[in-house]
Specification:
CATH class: Alpha Beta
Largest sheet: 5 strands, parallel
Strand content: 15-25%
Strand order of the largest sheet: 2-1-3-4-5
Number of domains: 1
Structural class: alpha/beta
Oligomer: single chain
Number of helices: 6
Helix content: 40-55%
Radius of gyration: 14 Å
Distance between the termini: 11 Å
Number of strands: 5
Amino acid sequence: MRRKLNCVLLVDDDPATNFLHTRAIKGADCTEEIVTAENGEAAINYLQHRFNQGLPAPELILLDINMPVMNGWDFLAAYTQLPDWQKNQSKLIMLTTSMNPDDEVKAKTFSEIKEFDYKPLDKAMLNSLLQRHFPELI
């Protein structure tokens, strides 16, 4: 039996996007757990809860930019303050509908962001992402 990711964290406030991404991830049968956080604050709280419980970080985090309460950039400001041993457990992929080229340029300034891409995540995009970042799953 092949290994699966321990957890995928979807950080996005759009229910339709979360539905589509969850469907693609479940279809790939690549994770034990999918968790949705509707904004960056909820995602940071979830990560801190996992760490407080002695659980590893989600191996894959899919992050939107435009969300209420705490957007993707604010999430990154908080995320970069986490200890390296916590951040190093995750591959953070920024997925957005933003067509602003400045967002992609800004994303490249964060070493924590492994990729910047456009929503929605589909089966082909997910398989390609998994091949690049988790080749042992394929």
